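Team,

Forwarding the record for the chain on the shared tracking sheet. I've put the sequence and predicted structure together so nobody has to dig through attachments.
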Amino acid sequence: MSHATLWYVDRGSGLVALLLLSAGVVLGVISALRVHSPGWSRFALAELHRNIGLLAVCFGAVHGATSVLDSFVNIRLADLVLPFGSHFRPLWVGVGAIAVDLTLAVLLTSAIRRRLGYRRWRAVHLLAYGAWTATVVHSVAMGTDARATWALVLMAGCIGAIGGALVLRLNPTGQVRAPAAPR
């Protein structure tokens, strides 16, 4: 595979992973709020959340693999999981490694959720917010298109979606309120 092809696959899979991770976090918040509709049961929403999360992990794996395979930069397989050891931009590759590590913790504990119990699983599952934050920071710092208008709009959309979901999540009444009508 040519360097150019690897670069495009690396860049594209990273952006898709960010979008999917953002969607997965938003769906997780909606699921935690017990939001449902007649057409979507809570179980369907939880399944969609899980599948989008797994798809985000798959695209993240493609992103990591193409980063290692691309000979233009020196990123080793260990750099994907061991923070700050990379010879290439160690801080920002390290932030990406932290995102990977946190995501793996969420993924692995979700696989053994029944054995852990709800409280332990949920405590680890909250690391998804840290994984998402590290992913955004990694994307902004490392992304070759991070300063392009379309990329800024994409990242702003992800941040806005998560911000909006968190506002709903942290609402002490747990109820979604319509904005007041103008007078």
